[in-house]
Known about the structure:
- This protein is an alpha+beta fold.
- It contains 5 helices and 6 strands, in the order αβββαβαβααβ.
- A 6-stranded mixed β-sheet has the order 1-2-3-4-6-5.
- The radius of gyration is 14 Å and the shape is globular.
- The mean pLDDT is about 85.
Amino acid sequence: xxxxxxxxxxxxxxxxxxxxxxxxxxxxxxxxxxxxxxxxxxxxxxxxxxxxxxxxxxxxxxxxxxxxxxxxxxxxxxxxxxxxxxxxxxxxxxxxxxxxxxxxxxxxxxxxxxxxxxxxxxxxxxxx
Length: 128
């Protein structure tokens, strides 16, 4: 929760939805976190954060790889996300600009889409 709060990411659901959050650990030290919520064939990639001191070491990529692998295993065919700071990172991974109104209704109804992220957040999506 601390890491998410440091980067102004919603942390309130970490305890209520613990199964959808993954923590990256190296040598006993938490270096990053990311979340995945599945809604049928659509998924929400959320709350990806890497410790400032560990950025540039590939942890963000590793977390995304793990979340995308988990999504595929769960039958998710398309991932959606909102970001205010990491659009370039996700575009480099093949994510494309989307529109919030194009997201499946279940994604639009998440607290991430409806409450937590500002209207100015970039909406991105990718097919798996």
